[in-house]
């Protein structure tokens, strides 16, 4: 897939001179213009481009905000208000950055579930998937540290509660948990020093994400894109050039996504936040119900579902770490859930469980909420550790089309240029 023949032709003597010494334009052309793209991609594949846009937008708006932000306990809260009220277009830049975090996670969750549904983690895309999980993990760390920066009540107490969880590691490695907490705090309590450390890391980590994204795209172009059938590109008729076919789809859906983005930025900028975070941090007043941002809620519910503190921390991090091993936990010989009649029901049950955990994470850790959080936490892990291995062995998949072309043309092509399909031809087996 990565070795397709280059069609780039320099248009001028300068372009030819440059191409002989640093073929950057050839690389861009081969990777993003003439790159062979499966002809049956649906609009769920547009979220890769949307995520790239979100990352660039977050970095650019973050750089501008950093020019005016004061990372100190005395000035942080007021500096955010100063940005919103006194900096030219500061209200828009701040709204764009705050809402952008939520839009980023909406897009990444859709991107992850698309990969799970269509088996984009299967060979030869294991490294591609693992890099995606690493990006997700660094995104969560970046967002958590960013949530501390407004220095409101929920910011302060969220940092206090979550960082304190590391102290539970003392039960395994005596002294290690406390050392981690004190390093994060920069002392023995959450103070302005903590805020300054989080600001530094929040500024740095997006560039780490950008580096991981470059590796992610590189791995994608080596292994090739997956598609709704899960079949590999076998002939030229199975693919189309990325531009204008895939790029036009990306631009259309990005435009629709930006409409929703703009709606929140201009009309509901504070809707996805918490009201208590518009009260300046006060170490002497604890909010009645401490909750993180909505995109952390499923993992927060898993944390609280375990009665033991150390067990809860392990379960919360294991909920992310287990994603790395999915390529080896799924034993099915086909990629796409579209052709898996039994597993499809379990997949939608898993999706419902994640939504339920998100809802339960926003509720107090008491009564029926804890009971259901434990039920859905059990299924979250059972889906990967039991359902994927067992169903993959026992299930009989539906008959696969012989090629991507056959899937698009409804069996009217043979995958070798659109010729008629011979009678009695059997579907070609799919390789993992």
Automatic annotation (TrEMBL):
Keywords: Electron transport, Heme, Iron, Membrane, Metal-binding, Respiratory chain, Transmembrane, Transmembrane helix, Transport. Its main location: membrane. Its cofactor is heme b; heme. The chain crosses the membrane at residues 43-68, 89-112, 127-149, 156-181, 201-220, 251-268, 310-330, 342-360, 372-394. Gene3D superfamilies: Cytochrome Bc1 Complex, Chain C. Pfam families: Cytochrom_B_C, Cytochrome_B. Heme b b566 binds at residues 111, 216. Residues 14-229 form the Cytochrome b/b6 N-terminal region profile domain. The keyword Heme applies. It is a multi-pass membrane protein. Heme b b562 binds at residues 97, 202. GO terms for biological process: respiratory electron transport chain. Residues 409-432 are annotated as: Disordered. One of its GO terms (cellular component) is respiratory chain complex III. A ubiquinone binds at residue 221. Residues 232-402 form the Cytochrome b/b6 C-terminal region profile domain. It is found in: Membrane. One of its GO terms (molecular function) is metal ion binding. Belongs to the cytochrome b family. Component of the ubiquinol-cytochrome c reductase complex (complex III or cytochrome b-c1 complex), which is a respiratory chain that generates an electrochemical potential coupled to ATP synthesis. The main subunits of complex b-c1 are: cytochrome b, cytochrome c1 and the Rieske protein. This is Cytochrome b. The lineage of its organism: Bacteria, Pseudomonadati, Pseudomonadota, Alphaproteobacteria, Hyphomicrobiales.
């Amino acid at each position: 897939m990565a070795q397709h023949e280059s069609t780039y032709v320099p248009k001028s003597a300068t372009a030819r001179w440059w191409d002989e010494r640093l073929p950057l334009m050839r690389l861009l052309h081969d990777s993003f213009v003439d790159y062979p793209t499966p002809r049956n991609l649906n609009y769920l594949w547009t979220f890769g481009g949307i995520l790239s846009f979100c990352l660039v937008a977050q970095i650019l708006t973050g750089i501008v905000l950093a020019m005016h932000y004061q990372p100190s306990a005395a000035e942080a809260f007021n500096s955010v208000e100063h940005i919103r009220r006194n900096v030219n277009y500061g209200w828009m830049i701040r709204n764009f950055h705050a809402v952008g975090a939520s839009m980023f996670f909406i897009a990444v969750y859709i991107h992850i579930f698309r990969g799970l549904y269509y088996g984009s983690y299967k060979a030869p895309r294991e490294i591609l998937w693992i890099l995606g999980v690493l990006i997700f993990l660094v995104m969560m760390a970046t967002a958590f540290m960013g949530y501390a920066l407004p220095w409101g009540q929920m910011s302060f107490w969220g940092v206090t509660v979550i960082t304190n969880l590391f102290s539970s590691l003392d039960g395994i490695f005596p002294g290690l948990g406390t050392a981690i907490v004190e390093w994060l705090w920069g002392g023995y309590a959450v103070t302005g020093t903590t805020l300054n450390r989080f600001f530094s890391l929040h500024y740095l980590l997006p560039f780490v994400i950008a580096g991981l994204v470059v590796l992610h795209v590189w791995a994608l172009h080596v292994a090739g894109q997956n598609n709704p059938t899960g079949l590999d590109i076998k002939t030229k008729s199975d693919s189309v050039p990325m531009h204008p076919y895939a790029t036009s789809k990306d631009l259309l859906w990005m435009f629709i996504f930006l409409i929703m983005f703009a709606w929140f930025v201009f009309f509901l900028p504070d809707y996805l936040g918490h009201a208590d975070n518009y009260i300046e941090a006060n170490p002497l007043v604890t909010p009645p119900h401490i909750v993180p941002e909505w995109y952390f809620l499923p993992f927060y519910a898993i944390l609280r579902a375990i009665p033991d503190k150390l067990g809860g921390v392990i379960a919360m991090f294991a909920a992310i770490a287990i994603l790395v091993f999915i390529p080896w936990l799924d034993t099915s010989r086909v990629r796409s859930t579209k052709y898996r009649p039994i597993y499809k029901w379990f997949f939608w049950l898993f999706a419902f469980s994640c939504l339920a955990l998100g809802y339960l994470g926003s509720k107090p850790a008491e009564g029926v909420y804890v009971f259901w959080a434990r039920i859905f936490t059990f299924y979250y892990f059972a889906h990967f550790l039991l359902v994927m291995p067992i169903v993959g062995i026992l299930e009989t998949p539906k008959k696969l089309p012989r090629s991507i072309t056959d899937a698009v043309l409804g069996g009217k092509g043979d995958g070798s240029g659109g010729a008629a399909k011979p009678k009695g031809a059997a579907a070609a087996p799919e390789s993992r």
